[in-house]
Task: structure prediction
Amino acid sequence: MKNLFLLILIFPLTSCGKSELNWLILSPNNIEGLTNLKFLLSGLTTTIYISIVSIIISIILGLLVALNIGYVEIVRAIPLLVLILWIYYGLPIMTGISFSPFVSGIIALSISESAFQAEIFRAGINSIKKSQWEAGSSLGLSFFRKLRLVILPQAIKNILPAIGNQFVYVLKMSSLVSIIGIGDLTRKANELVVTTYRPLEIYTFLILEYLVLILIVSYLVRKLEKKLQKD
Result:
């Protein structure tokens, strides 16, 4: 498996000599290639920012609707791409309320991801022993005070790795917001393809961008899991 992974990474480099490929358009050794690289990488900040904001909002929404199974089932049944298009194009027609592409993308990602976060929170809450609830009741705490002071602090520690894995998922799904014009990594790649007519080289570089980004985040998530296990 490891050898296959290395082969996938090395293949674009070993293919540079083929006449149908032109990796010079992405070479930092010439002005055109350096300009193209800067243009492609300019979408990195947007991708990371929209993913972080969306995961934070989705965590809050997920916690609020953790016990609402109906909400979870409905939201999970809606494809993310369809939700993005509906919020950006359909919502203004129906309600007269319109949002910028950036805000529309965040709203769609947050709503879609909140259903998964709700499932994570529900599993975390259910993992807490019944004796903890009874201990809260013996102190005279109301349901919501028991949840906030006794149950959630323990549950959150258990579900942090799962939330980290969902952040990886959001990073990948954020590529769909490019369809409404948000200048993320995928949008930048699409725009460069239109001007250079070199889809193979550019989309290969796009894959490598996401691959490196996801591997870094996955590494940090694994470090978090190990730290929590030690604690």
The chain has ten helices and no strands. Residues 170 and 201 are 25 Å apart (CA to CA). The chain has one domain: 49-230. The domain at 49-230 is CATH 1.10.3720.10 (MetI-like fold).
